[in-house]
Amino acid sequence: MSGPNAPDKWRPSLGLVIFTVLATVAILPLVGLFFFRLYDNQLIRQTQAELIAQSRVLAAIFAQEVQAQLTNGIPLGAEIPPGVLPDPGDQVTPIRPALDLTGNDLLRRRPAALPAGAPADQAYVEIGARLLPIVRETQKVTLAGFRILDPQGVVIAGRQEVGQSLAHIEEIAAALHGEYRAALRIRVPDKPPPPIYSISRGVGVHVFSAMPVIVNNRVAGVIYTTRTPSNIFDHLYQERVKFLLAALAVILATMAIGLFFSRTITQPMHELIGRAARIGKGDRTAFRPLRHYGTREFAQLSHSFFGMAEQLARRSDYIATFSAHLTHELKSPLTSIKGAAELLLDSLDDKSDGLTRSEQKTFVSNILGDTERLEAMAQRLRELARAETVPQNERTELASVISDLKGRFPACVVTAAGSLARPIGISGEKALIVLSHLADNAVRHNARNIRLDAVDEHAAVRLVVGNDGDPISEANRERIFDAFFTTRRDAGGTGMGLAIVRAVMTSHGGSIRLLPTSEGVTFELRFPAA
Length: 530
Description:
Elements: H1 14-34, H2 37-69, E1 106-107, E2 114-115, H3 122-142, E3 145-149, E4 155-158, E5 164-165, H4 170-175, E6 181-186, E7 205-215, E8 218-227, H5 232-238, H6 240-280, H7 296-348, H8 357-387, E9 396-397, H9 398-408, E10 413-418, E11 423-424, H10 428-444, E12 449-456, E13 460-467, H11 497-507, E14 511-515, E15 521-528
Helix pairs in contact: 1-6, 2-3, 7-8, 8-11, 9-10, 10-11
């Protein structure tokens, strides 16, 4: 009967799983490039924050210049509406960057300057001239564009557009009414950007900042600044050779990892699967070790698997051999019983000349003798089955077992010495079965004395059991542990005693062997220490 099969559903192969992991590792650097888009917005807000700080410093200087000219009647702009100015009691009034590239705040290109409706007041022109050196020195470091406007939106200082009006531009129009305003606008570069720039939206925009200059609750002017946000891809493009080398290193590293996985996992796994299939078909040559194990855990798995498979194979061979021997052993008494019963039945039916009373008694005695032999054999088979059961946390001491042994064989002198108090990993019942079979064999072969010597060997207890009975011939020494082998078949021997002893010892992790001796018989048993 075959075992239960796994549910029939799709499962990825080990190779597919490893390939997926490797492919993911390989594309992670490429996927990381797209995550740079998330930094575009942060870079834009960082740029806006820098423009706010720079323009606020210039606005303070501009305001001081205008304050100094108030006594000379310098004209001021529009009055600030209520609610626009911060509370005078506030010690800190920060302007937080709020531009959002992902929120579709992008405007068209900045409109061109228009001719001024009226020229700027001379006082403002003079202030612009005094501020121009400061603007130029600041621009050298910050790389930002600066324009200083009078209250009417006319440029009074800057590299370009001096004397022209910018009052029609949205952010400047808001600043001329006392509100700070910033804007993102499309930028047309002087030269085409590198192809890699297409990954980022932030490289094609300009950040514009319009900071109002407030004097006596009126607009005295506007500091208009602009700058392109910083961009990481410019650096990547400049270092494209190194970038390609890094990509090549990632590919080579991925291939190396793949080869490592293949050698340590995939190849040993496929070889073990092939071996399992061959073992299932009865190929005994498949028990040899794998060519390569890969990992420590896989080596342990392989050793455990082959050990289990070899044990099952030996068990299968044992069952086949045992079945053949059992059939042979049962055949003789069953044939004898059947023949005797048929003769007795014929005698009762008067189909023959009839059997004498003595002959009938002989046949009945034969039937009873064969029945007793079958009962003894059945008892030995039950003992053998119990002997081969897997032990569960068993332990006992040899001293108590030997005491029971002496009670079972009072006609024999049993002496014991050595480490009899050392606990062994076997139950007292099974240890008594082992020693009882050895003692029974000794008594049936004319032994009068049995000596047991125990030696503690840390992980095991070695017990030497010797007797002064008839020695075992050289021809029989190799067969004494075989099931159904006996030299006392005529006396009712089943040949199962030593087979049961070996089965008990083996199932508990111990062993038994026959030692060479000049007189008597000596066995060496190794019990696992508890």
